[in-house]
Design a protein that fits this description.
Blueprint: H1 3-15, E1 22-39, E2 42-60, E3 63-71, H2 75-92, E4 110-115, H3 122-132, E5 138-153, E6 158-173, E7 179-186, H4 191-207, E8 218-224, H5 226-236, H6 242-246, H7 253-257, E9 268-270, E10 280-281, E11 284-285, E12 289-293, E13 296-297, H8 304-310, E14 325-328, H9 338-342, E15 345-358, E16 363-376, E17 379-383, E18 388-392, H10 393-396, E19 401-404, E20 409-411, E21 424-427, E22 430-437
Parallel strand pairs: 4-6, 8-15, 14-21
Antiparallel strand pairs: 1-2, 1-5, 2-3, 5-6, 6-7, 8-22, 9-12, 9-14, 10-11, 12-13, 15-16, 16-17, 16-18, 19-22, 20-21
Length: 439
């Protein structure tokens, strides 16, 4: 299926169906993804998913409604489905009340981007995984392929985005049941880069056979890998939402109010180029935003609805006001010096089950998991059993942040419920002078 031609055929048909006083927006999502599941370093399940969905929104004055429909990929059949959805919306809209915060972008904007559109050679990637993991108990999941997003409106807006990427999450299991987890993601598979990831995981696996080092609850020096930091950022990144900040529900409320601060090492941006998300939302073209600058609060994510309700200027953020391509600037810490700079403390490879223990205070809690090690004099000594952490983002991104690694790592979401997600984070690793474990 030619996704763009399919989308444009639906758009052309819809434009011809409009009646006086009506307007529409049409969103389109499609993918052609390979999904491979591994167990004991062997392919246990392999499949390919090709799917497309459209969301039609109809507007009559200040009234609006929308309908999502699954598409077959055959233009004639899908045009009929579109007509049926349009008739249902025409029946429903007269029964609805006006929306006082409806602020449609009626500009005739255009945005076309292509990120990593090269074809993914899944066969070559799977072959390398198979050969390199011989003799290991590797469990993993590989997803790859192109994804497409389209948007158009009756007011002349048109957006098209094509991206191709891969995401491999894998764990190496020790015979004692312990595991090391790793991930490798990007726009193009690099055999050397994967070999390095696997070699590092294999090195950590050897330490899992040692007796666990028992820790008492308390504060310890710690290094958080980019994957561990992603779990924390995933918890509070929605705090840049204009609505959350306006209603007092953001975990970053104290920062934007001026009663708390972060380290000047922290600079965070919502980027357009370099990520895999589209350069537009249904609100219009997205804008690059500096969310944090040297620890100081910057811009917030403002949808048109929040702009109308709180007297702000919209900046292309989606209705959920969540960052789609978050990037944190790196620092001066060389990856080869991580253990040496840590000295004695915790090397934390992954965190999970994260949640807020005190949202207004920005306190996060969760569990360590997989490869967490006790380090002494710059050398890994033993694994650490699962423990709970509880710490404030104003501490671990504030006075307790000692250093950040130089190169942020691209981290892609592993969610595949309904469809593969398209957001991303690029995060460095973080060396902390204190990180609090509670039990």
């Amino acid at each position: 299926m030619d996704a763009r031609r399919h989308f444009e055929a639906l758009l052309g048909h819809l434009e011809n169906q409009m009646q006086a006083g009506e307007g529409f927006t049409l969103e389109y999502q499609a993918e052609a993804s390979d999904f491979i599941r591994f167990n004991h370093a062997r392919v246990r399940q392999a499949g390919k998913v090709q799917q497309a969905y459209a969301t039609l929104a109809l507007y009559q004055g200040e009234r609006h409604g929308e309908f999502e429909l699954a598409l077959s990929g055959v233009s004639e059949d899908d045009q009929l489905r579109l007509d049926q959805s349009l008739q249902r919306l025409r029946t429903v809209l007269p029964t609805l009340a006006d929306d006082p915060y409806l602020r449609l972008n009626r500009e005739a904007w255009r945005s076309e981007t292509a990120a990593g559109v090269a074809t993914q050679d899944s066969a070559a990637a799977i072959s390398q995984i198979f050969e390199a993991s011989a003799g290991l108990d590797l469990v993993g999941f590989y997803a790859a392929g192109p994804q497409y997003q389209g948007f158009a409106s009756s007011w002349g807006a048109f957006g098209w985005h094509a991206a191709s990427s891969f995401n491999l999450e894998f764990s190496l299991f020790h015979e004692n049941g312990q595991a090391v987890k790793s991930n490798y993601a990007g726009e193009r598979w690099d055999a050397q880069a994967f070999a390095g990831k696997l070699a590092f995981a294999r090195e950590q696996l050897e330490h899992l056979g040692k007796p666990a080092h028992k820790l008492q609850p308390g504060a310890y020096r710690a290094y958080l890998t980019p994957a561990a930091l992603e779990e924390l950022f995933g918890l509070f990144a929605w705090g840049f939402s204009a609505q959350a900040l306006a209603t007092g529900g953001s975990p970053l409320q104290r920062l934007f109010a001026g009663s708390a601060s972060l380290s000047n090492k922290v600079t965070l941006e919502e980027r357009i180029e370099g990520g895999l998300a589209s350069a537009f939302t249904r609100e219009g073209p997205r804008q690059p935003l500096r969310l944090l600058s040297a620890g100081q609060p910057g811009e917030r994510l403002v949808s048109s609805r929040s702009a109308a309700e709180y007297g702000l200027l919209a900046n292309g953020a989606g209705s959920g006001e969540y960052p789609l391509s978050l990037r944190m600037y790196g620092g001066e810490l060389d990856e080869r010096e991580i253990l040496g700079r840590l000295g004695t403390g915790l090397y934390i490879g992954n965190l999970w089950y994260g949640n807020f223990s005190d949202l207004p205070a920005g306190r996060l809690t969760g569990m360590t998991r997989f490869a967490t090690f006790w380090v002494e004099d710059g050398r890994i000594q033993a694994p650490i059993n699962t423990m709970r952490f509880d710490d404030s983002l104003f501490d671990f991104l504030g006075p307790n942040l000692e250093a950040l690694t130089r190169e942020p790592e691209l981290l892609l979401p592993n969610g595949t419920y309904g469809a593969r997600q398209t957001g991303s984070m690029a995060l460095p690793g973080a060396l902390l002078s204190r990180f609090t474990l509670t039990l």
